[in-house]
Amino acid sequence: MNPFTNDPAARVTAIGEVGLIELIKAWLGPTTPKAPQGIGDDCAVLRPYPNGVLATTDGVVFGHHFDENATPEAAGEKLLKRNLSDIAAMGGSPRDALITLLLGPDVSLKFVEGFYRGLRACAEQNNICLAGGDITSTAPHFFAAYATLLGETTNPITRVGGQAGDSLWVTGTLGGSLLGHHLTFEPRISEGLFLSAYPGIKSLIDLTDGMAKDCHALFSPGIEAVFDISQIPISPAAYTQSQHTNKTPLEHAFCDGEDYELLFVLDSKADEVNLITQWKNAFKTPLNRIGWLSAISIPESPAELRRLDTGAPLPAWRGYEHLKNVIHTLQK
Ligand SMILES: [Mg+2]
Asked: What topology does CATH give the domain 167-331?
């Protein structure tokens, strides 16, 4: 849906900030409790978290993270789900969120209402309290929203700690997200919680900018990754998309952004068979052992990603690099 309208009576400016906040409270229902726990005071007063606090922030911008082919509900859900994926990548559970809207004067109330319907549905599904936020006016023809999501964990799994010999695993399937997965994905919260408790999980990240780029966050200096290409879970959408691009399905799997899957490192001494058994008992989500970390084998070579079958460096594939990729995601 197009977020903008030419009808002055249907715009957010017809009711102003105070009126919009009242509507938002009504739209959110029980997902925003009475102030000061919910919307309505200078700050939200949150109940203390018994365990460690996780904090993340991420946004959606119209024309960049979604376009008019998306429903406002899907855009609202995507905002919270992007943040949920980061909480999953630390092995945490979500708790409270603050939502900031950046609205041009021509944004339609109908769009904002649908956006909040999506936020509410996702919040209800994940037990998130929408505790507050802010509304800022922008130039016309602009819609963006940011969420700050707080979560909790007893055992945060960071990106560091992988060593030569450790294995590399990924959830779900990869590539072709632009064909729909970037809106419909399920953040891997339960899977992240499972991994945070599984012995031998050393490091964990969610894949947002493409595995070819994101996996580097798991390497220490002197380490490279060897990928068993036959085990890379290429999504059906990556095959479909490759029919319309000059890229192979494998390149889509490595380089497309917005997979929102979990990539993790398992200690070389950990019980892999038990991991697979427990995983299959708990989840339908696919899990694949896609390679391992290795000490850099050819010091003069700059390659940090290699193929197992040939030993050759993977091509100079990159994921999505913010501030550098000129063509934005939805126009790729
Ligand atoms: Mg992340």
From this structure: Phosphoribosyl-aminoimidazole Synthetase; Chain A, domain 2 (3.90.650)
The pLDDT, as a whole number, for residue 305 is 83
Distance from Cα 150 to the centre of ligand 1, integer Å? 14
Tell me the CATH number for domain 8-153. Answer: 3.30.1330.10
Q: How high is the pLDDT of residue 329? A: 40
Sheet of 287-295: strands edge to edge?
A: 201-206, 262-266, 167-171, 287-295, 223-227, 305-307
Query: Ligand 1: distance of its center to the CA of 28 in Å?
Result: 27
Q: Which of 119, 89, 311 is nearest to 209 (CA)?
A: 89
What spacing in Å lies between the alpha carbon of 156 and ligand 1's midpoint? 13
pTM of the shown model: 0.94
Convert the pLDDT of each residue in 74-87 to its tens digit: 999 999 999 999 99
Distance (Å) from CA 258 to ligand 1 centroid = 10
Going from the Cα of 26 to the center of ligand 1, the distance in angstroms, rounded, reads 32
* Domain range list for the chain: 8-153, 167-331
Low-confidence ranges of the chain (pLDDT < 70): 298-303, 319, 321-332
What distance in Å separates the CA atoms of residue 260 and residue 189, rounded to the nearest whole number? 11
| Sequence-ordered list of residues with C-beta below 8 angstroms from that of 243, at least 6 positions apart, any chain | none
Rounded to the nearest angstrom, the distance between the alpha carbon of 105 and the centre of ligand 1 is 32
For residue 74, report the distance from its CA to the centre of ligand 1, in Å.
Answer: 20
CA–centroid distance, residue 170 to ligand 1 (Å): 14
Which pLDDT score, from 0 to 100, does residue 328 have? 38
Distance 262 CA to ligand 1 centre (A): 9
CB atoms within 10 A of CB 154: 12
Q: What is the DSSP letter of 313?
A: B
Residue 207 Cα to ligand 1 middle (Å): 7
From ligand 1's centre to the CA of 76, what distance in Å?
19
* Phi/psi at 65 (5° precision): -100, -15
Q: What pLDDT is stored for residue 313 in this prediction?
A: 80
List pLDDT tens digits, range 176-208: 999 999 999 999 999 999 999 999 999 999 999
